[in-house]
Amino acid sequence: MEAGIIIEELKKYIESNILSGEVKIDGSTNLQQAGIDSFSTVEIILFIERKFGVMIPDDKLVPDNFRTLQALSTIVQELLN
Amino acid sequence: MNAFDKSLLPKKVRLSGADCFHLVLDKHAQKHGAGGNVMRKVFYFSGNISFEKTESILKRSPIIYWLCNIELVPGSLLTIPYWKFTDRRNNIILLEHHVEEENSIPASILARDITINATRFIEADLLHYPSGASAFVLSWNHILLDAKGTTLLFNHLNHISENSRINYDLFFPAKEKRPNIIGYIRNMYKVKHFIQHSSKKPVSSIGEKDQKCADGSSSYRTFGFNSTESKKIAQNAFKSGSRFGPTLFFIACCAHVIHKLNTKRGKKGDTWVPVPYDGRLKGASGPLISNCVSFLFYRLRPEEMNNIPETVKSLAAQMTSQIKEQMPQKYNMLLNMMRHIPLWLYYFLISRTGEGTFASFLYTSTGDNFNELRSLFGEPLKNLALIPALTYPPGFTFVFLKHDDEVNVEIAYSPGVINEEELVLVEQNMRELLLADY
């Protein structure tokens, strides 16, 4: 799956379910600075499991991998491949 | 003189489900003779801050004016309780104190009655210390504002001191969506079952359910960590499995400290702790008024307390499971539904949970909300503290606060729940756990 499609799916989910309407994000937005906290991160992990059918292993659960949508899409791509 | 347009302030604001829960806590505090459901924030300054300037900023705030001019209209089966804006021209009272002991807060402030029967729900004090340093204390009833609302309130006061434009839309909760009654009832049963199961006996609490705190006082103890220690605490949190922020690590350390204390006291049972969860959409700049929190409920068996990483693992699994089940949202729906129940019945139902013991201890954290707050009213800040509302029982709350990249821990407690010797052990044990090598 292309990184652009993964980013778009994640963006759609996060903007409609987690973030306030006044906050818009793109692939390079720092998610923590946009307001994503530890609870929201768990929501994102659960969404990735449901949507892409992959489980993020323990060693990938590090803040760097959740910094931006781009970083997240890289992980999802790796797991899909 | 108030330099804002009062006509922009709402005449009626409905209480949220969490606000009504705090009404119950207020009733509970009155019944147990505890200090009331009152929060206090303390801002310390190295130098003197001007009484006139501070008073002027407070009086220019429309939200402070609103908080000084409302009364509660109780609900009924068909109507939800609401705040009625009375516009009685009450202004906030700022009192000035000269305090002998550096950084201390006078008992008169800590014992002040700001319960639901008070005429104002917010009070301000300015303290002057012998060294020339000063402190600003804001006290308010928790029914009106939660932790995030407080952060927004201080941002708003800073905007006033900078003469920035005031956005009234951010103050008050938006109109609620029409509820899906069947969905509500279905959720209610799920949540009721979950909480009853989560809080079932045996739970060991630091407080005794029948113990009363007759003089209504609450005490607190603070200890802090320098920036090097605070960095180590952040690393320890990560190493222990608290991957996205230190919250689970902090809760685990608190649980271990209380478990150790209870074991020493000969108490047996699991540890049960509700942890507040901000229900606002992330990145939102409002609402300032009303409690938008829900809760996550953690239960730890003694066999999950062998070491901190093991406890964090259990907490993480419980958190994931509750988020997966959307338990905080469902609990919020339950609280919203409970707004239709008379207060006495609500209190009866709540106090039956866990047979009158609300929790093993309470935990709250300001997260990073105040970490980068460098000034208030245009004056540089030296430090800050949060004195939480004290629910009794258990009458013991841990507060984790981060300011200027340094972690501070505050313990608010009812005298009678813990003695001085035990408090020293709690602090010592907490320091050891936070700074251990994992």
Please, could you describe this protein's structure?
The complex is a heterodimer of chains A (81) and B (438). Chain A is built from 4 helices and no strands. Chain A has 81 residues and is mainly α. In chain A, helix 1 crosses helix 4. Chain B has 2 domains: 6-170, Chloramphenicol acetyltransferase-like domain (Chloramphenicol Acetyltransferase, 2-Layer Sandwich); 181-366 and 391-435, Nonribosomal peptide synthetase, condensation domain (Chloramphenicol Acetyltransferase), CATH 3.30.559.30. Chain B contains 12 helices and 16 strands. In chain B, helix 8 (247-264) crosses helix 9 (308-324) and helix 8 (247-264) crosses helix 12. The radius of gyration of chain B is 21 Å and the shape is globular. The mean pLDDT of chain B is 88.
How is the topology of this model organized?
The complex is a heterodimer of chains A (81) and B (438).
Chain A: H1 3-17, H2 31-34, H3 38-52, H4 69-80
Helix pairs in contact in A: 1-4
Chain B: E1 12-14, H1 17-31, E2 38-45, H2 51-59, H3 62-67, E3 70-73, E4 82-85, E5 94-98, H4 107-110, E6 122-128, E7 134-141, H5 147-161, H6 181-198, E8 219-224, H7 227-239, H8 247-264, E9 271-278, E10 293-300, H9 308-324, H10 327-338, H11 343-352, E11 362-365, E12 375-376, E13 379-380, E14 383-387, E15 396-403, E16 406-413, H12 420-435
Parallel strand pairs in B: 5-6, 11-15
Antiparallel strand pairs in B: 1-4, 2-7, 2-14, 3-4, 6-7, 8-16, 9-10, 12-13, 15-16
